[in-house]
Amino acid sequence: MRKPFVQLAAMTMVAAMTFTNYSIDAFASSNKVTSVLPQAGITYALGSNQVSLSNLQETVETEKAEAEAASSTSKSEATIEAVNSSDTVTNVTPLASTVTDSILSDIQNATGAIVPSSEESTEPENPEDELFKTLVIAQVHDYVNVRDLPSEEDGEIIGKLYDKSVGTYISEENGWYKIQSGSVEGYVKAEYCVTGDDAVELAKQVGTRIATVTTTTLKVRGGASLDAEVLGLVPIEDQLVVEEELEGWVKVSIEEGDGYVSMDYVTLSTEFVKAESKAEEEARLAKERAAREAANKAAKSNSSKSGSSSGSKSYNSAGSYTTATSSIGSAVAQFAQQFVGNPYVYGGTSLTNGADCSGFVMSVYSNFGVSLPHSSGADRSVGAAVDGLANAQPGDIVCYSGHVAIYIGNGQIVHASTAKTGIKISNADYRKILAVRRIF
Length: 440
Prior knowledge:
28% helix; five-stranded antiparallel β-sheet
């Protein structure tokens, strides 16, 4: 027994010396050797003269383990051949989910690589915040010019970035941000805008999260459950402001109050106002002028003076409110107010027998020869934009989340409110206003 033991010890020493010599030669032969990390476990590739431990073990394994040693040798040789196929060996990082924390520690100690553990997420904590950091948001009284060059002297004005409008950051140069917004790509002065971390919270304020209805009639419920009571109904393509997003549900604002709708029946989006090019601005203004002239002509040609009646109550015609001294918008407001007290009917368009909010606005304007959509969401795009309630005039259309009304002056509106209240007069600022639009 002593003689085999001595032979085994001698062979082990020779193997160790051989391994050491090969290791030194390998490091000396190349300055580009790095670690190759397999999917599981750690093996170090030492260059073209690599000797694996499995080769050394062959000299001390018994004949009974030859098959196992040969298999191990074959795998090691395959690893060596793969490594030797390139002079430069790069880091191959295993998937964090396939290795333990202790192995991850070994990998980091051996290679310097930073490998997240299986408990860590490679995704940012809030992807939306990361996106908002790339925005450039205007903070001005009216608008900031977008120029083709980062210079007020040499740069030609190619568009406008209105207050609270948003562009995407491209680069920064001498106090100017290069942005892409809508169809406009150019430079805005950095002092009139914010970006990066400062843009995150502002983006949440200036952006409007919208749920667009995709089913014929959407039920808005008092809770995030199919068993909750129905607060109100919303037609297809109407747009609701999202107050909160839950799992499978979104909290939205409607005339009857805040409620919940299933995500299965809406599409979500965030609306930002974008820059407008000079050509787009000119085309928009020309279109608005033409539409206003056509509306004025239609209203003046509506010479019907006969009144209408519902039961014992008589109503004046639209033409009776149109005079040479008053604006057509004022005539619209006066005409609409005579229907206060009449019922609200979902989907209705009758000023006397019942209408919903957009049906009421549509029917009022139809008496002045103007055709409007039967949709509160679509009403946000008709006519010309008015800069806030402070600049509203009688006859303007005031748009809310899932609701629309007619401004009558003195901070008030007339609207088909709910099935409980019918057509009534309210303060215009009783809810958040999304848009004010002018037809005349």
